[in-house]
Amino acid sequence: MGLLDKLSGWLGLRKKEVNVLCLGLDNSGKTTIINQLKPSNTQEQEIVPTIGFNIEKFKSSSLLFTVFDMSGQNRYRNLWEHYYKESHAIIFVVDSSDKLRMVVAKEELDTLLNHEDIRCKKLPMLFFANKMDLQDSMSSIRVSQMLCLENIKDKPWHICDSNAIKGEGLQEGLDWLQGEVFNNKTVTLGYKGREGQVKLCSECQFTHAY
C-alpha cells in the first residue's frame, strides 16, 4: 500500500479535501517524492521534469487529499502563487547536494513566506532535505540553517532528511504533517468538490486522478 493509506482516518466519516502544494526548485525531487506516495502498482517507472504542474488525488473513505506538484523551473515558478489561497499545507523540497542553488531556494522560500496569501496563514510547512544518499549532500540541520528556517515564527514547520528514490524519510514527514493538519484549527478544510477523471486503485481502496 502507499504511504498515504494511513491518512484515511484523519477527518471523520465525511469526505473533506486537503490541498497540499509541493514546491521547490527543479530537480529537487518533488515528483519522485509524490510518486513514492502512490501505491506501488501505480507508481511511474520513469520520472520526467514537471511542465507547469501535475495534480494527484488520493481518495479514501473519509478524505480527498490533493497534491499540486508545481514545476520548479524558473519560467514556471510564477504559477505557484495562484494556488496559495486554497492551500492547507506546503511541502518544500530541497536538493541537499546542490549547494550552489541553495541561495536560490532560500530566495524562493522568502518570496513564498512574504506573499499576502501565505503571510497571515498558519499553515504547516514540511521541508524535505532530499537526496541524502549523494556524497556531497548536507544534513537537514545544515539545510535548515542555510534556509534560515528558525526565522519562521508564525507557522509550524518540520524538516526531514530524505532519499526520495528509496522512500526514506517520507514516512516521518507525513506523520508530522498529518498531525499538524488535523490539529491546525486555523486552517479551514473544504468538503469534497469536483472529482475529475479518476482511476480506481483496488489494492489500497484509493481513487486517484492525475
From TrEMBL:
It holds the Pfam family Arf. GO terms for biological process: cell projection organization. Its main location: membrane. The lineage of its organism: Eukaryota, Metazoa, Chordata, Craniata, Vertebrata. The keyword Transport does not apply. The keyword Cytoplasm applies. This is ADP-ribosylation factor-like protein 6. It comes from the Eukaryota. GO terms for cellular component: axoneme; ciliary membrane. PROSITE patterns: ARF (PS51417). Keywords: Cell membrane, Cell projection, Cilium biogenesis/degradation, Cytoplasm, Cytoskeleton, GTP-binding, Lipoprotein, Magnesium, Membrane, Metal-binding, Myristate, Nucleotide-binding. It is found in: Cell projection, Cilium membrane; Cytoplasm, Cytoskeleton, Cilium axoneme; Cytoplasm, Cytoskeleton, Cilium basal body. It is a peripheral membrane protein. GO terms for molecular function: GTP binding; GTPase activity; metal ion binding. It comes from Mola mola. Transmembrane segments: none annotated. GTP binds at G24, L25, D26, N27, S28, G29, K30, T31, G72, N130, K131, M132, D133. Signal peptide: none annotated. Belongs to the small GTPase superfamily. Arf family. Mg(2+) binds at T31, T50.
